[in-house]
Amino acid sequence: MPKPLLLLLLITLLQLSLSASLTNPGDIAALKSFKSSITPSTILPSSCISTWDFSFDPCSSPKTTHFICGLTCSPDSTRVISITLDSVGYSGTLTPLISQLTHLLTLDLGQNSFHGPIPNSLSSLSLLQTLSLRYNSFFGPLPSSITTLTNLIDLDLSGNFLTGPLPTTLSSLTKLTRLDLSFNRFSGELPKLPPNLLELAIKANSLSGSISKVSFSDLTRLETVELSSNSFTGVLPNWFFQLPSLQQVNLANNSLTGVDIAKPDRKYNNLIAVDLGYNKIQGYVPVNFSDYPALASLSLRYNRLRGPIPLKYSKKGTLRRLFLDGNYLSGTPPVGFFYRGGDAVAGSFGDNCLRGCPRSSPLCLPSQKPMAVCKQAYAGKLSTSFD
What we know:
Blueprint: H1 3-20, H2 25-36, E1 71-73, E2 80-84, E3 91-93, E4 106-108, E5 113-116, E6 130-132, E7 137-141, E8 154-156, E9 161-165, E10 178-180, E11 185-188, E12 199-201, E13 206-209, H3 213-216, E14 224-226, E15 231-236, H4 238-241, E16 248-250, E17 255-259, E18 273-275, E19 282-284, E20 297-299, E21 304-307, H5 311-314, E22 321-323, E23 328-329, E24 346-348, H6 371-377
Parallel strand pairs: 2-4, 3-5, 4-6, 5-7, 6-8, 7-9, 8-10, 9-11, 10-12, 11-13, 12-14, 13-15, 14-16, 15-17, 16-18, 18-20, 19-21, 20-22, 21-23, 22-24
Antiparallel strand pairs: 1-2
């Protein structure tokens, strides 16, 4: 064989040898198991997984025809550090051998059709920072072993069929800043939450009990709370609104019976939006909401509130949305709501027991309750402002 051809052959063999030795063998075995656990008919020709051809090294470069998407390797091309799948409807189970990808930082299988239980072996992924299994069909309890993943920053398991109580060790995820468990079937009370949360979303589940101070203790960075469509009961306590970074609250569609809210301390001035609609809140409209300087949106619709609309609400310049419809509010709404020009408030005062609400104003829609209903609600005791 001529020397130039022999040299070219040796170089080619050397390159193939180096290429074959790049990715950690344990990682390759895990990736093979991961792909084999996906139903072949759901791997479309245009999908990322269709390019996973194990006759080539997963971490070799350049990726022109094989492993072109869906995974990322470490700078030295030896370990898989990210699996982020395209949302094309992959169906299958999550292989327990995923635990061998011990350098994994991101696992995102969102918006596919994976099913079965979440494997306990995920606890071996000690470096994991982002875990997203959102909008699949995983079922069963949330493994408590997930709470050993102390490097997690973002945990999103929303839109599955997960059941049972939340792990009592959830607070051990001390680096977690975003938690979304919405649209599942979790039940029981809210446990103590991770201390560095910025965003909390567990809407549309079956959580119950009261909003406990133990659950929210030390959450000085919490900005967003989304717990709507559960079964929380009792009075929403004043300390809740004193969480120092709180901006947005949605506890609509629960069974809360009251709101205890005092005037805010000067340092608690971040509250922007509050939705407590569709609960069972009784008493007068909480006037102290108007003392939060940045409040722009407030919904107390479809509760059991009585009495007048606070005059201070009509004088609050930051307020842009106000929904008080579906209660038993009485008297005449403050005229300030109807003469604000470009600062007009959007919302509704309809379906109450108000009198003198201008029919020309969208705020007064829908129409007020019949007088007979209002008299029954007030046991026949109508104030002069109510007539």
